[in-house]
Write a structure and sequence with these properties.
Length: 445
Amino acid sequence: MPVGTTKITRTFGTPTDRDKWTYSAWVKISHNGAAMEQGLFLGYIDANNYTELYITETGQLLLYNHLSGSAGGNIKTNRVFKDSSAFYHIQVVWDSGNAVEADRVKFYINGVQETSLATSTYPAIDTNSTINGNNLHEIGAKVGSFDFGGVMSHVQFVDGSALAPTEFGQVDATSEIWKIKTSCYGTPGNNGFCLKMEDSSNLDLDSSSNAATFSTTGTLTATKDNPSNNFATMNILDKDSITFSNGNTTLTWSATNKGTKSTLGMAGGKWYAECKATDVNGGSSGTLIGVGTGANFPSTYLSATNSGWGYRCQTGNIQNGAGNEAYGNTYTDGDIIGVAIDVDNGYVYMSKNGVWQDSGDPTSGASGTGAANNQPSYGAVLSGTQFFGCSSYDTDVLSWNFGNGYFATTSTGTTEADDAGIGQFKYDVPTGYYALCTKNIKLYG
């Protein structure tokens, strides 16, 4: 669920235990640095009384308890959270009645307690937090309108219990990776809730035994991206002059000749994604959509070297460091470009609104019929790990769909999936091609 500027809210009732609670959420961040704090959870009475959990401008996790205008607890990690390629499991335990000061607030990240702290001002014994008070609570928010812009899943709150992380996750016996437990904790307390965010028609549904009612400000956007099957997005670490939004799938440029790539790479297999030209200045810009090794990003454009292949909106040409070859039709605002990459045979194909350019056939295998990199001046094959990529020569806006079913906040309006039944695309996925996500990489990569 990309939250964006959306908030899920509820006013709590009388708590089971005001001094003891546990918060757990699986989050995929969208963090652009300065002035881009990311709110996770907020309990709010007024400007002098609130408790907020958020990711700071510098990427640190911070819990700040503000009571009667003063700090009643201020815990901040040294660790920074800037990896947008996977989900973090973030858990906070508030236990202010604990005689051990350092045990009154605990952070757990992916099941491991975070003990390296930049700030460790613990609350005095039996200090209340505004979280779990009889007041307004907001998921995906903090004071000052810095709402969460990434993806959230399985947000749980337990009133009256200080829980271990094993209640919400477990170590996979094979991979030894921390993975989600998708069930809700059985004893949530008076104010507890469990928002799985897996029902696209009711994303603020409380699946706990309390079945509490929530309100949503704005429009929640459903996504196939989840902790059990992590989908590619665009990479916020390649953020030079680019603003990321809508769960890191929408890109807005503020300067030219800058590019970015997908978070997941492709060392083998066949893969498909779509990119909507949301605003490419009427097709007069030099937007490039395609694939590459990522060697050029973020400081320059997709086709700056031989390792990148870009389909240009202004001319319809394929650009590569080796040249600029006539290929297909121009495209403009509202057009959707499909990118099919056959890493096994070394070819990439481009479509415009479902029509493969130059009569391309992504299923043609070794012949590379109509492939963008198999034009007369090129006759080249791809090599090395590939990434979906794009760049701009102007102040453009592009929105990618890696199978989540949306371009920004607009649904594809279709139910096209890959051969594994995964993803939701606007147009038919070529036979043998797959959405770029961890389940498919394991099986077909």
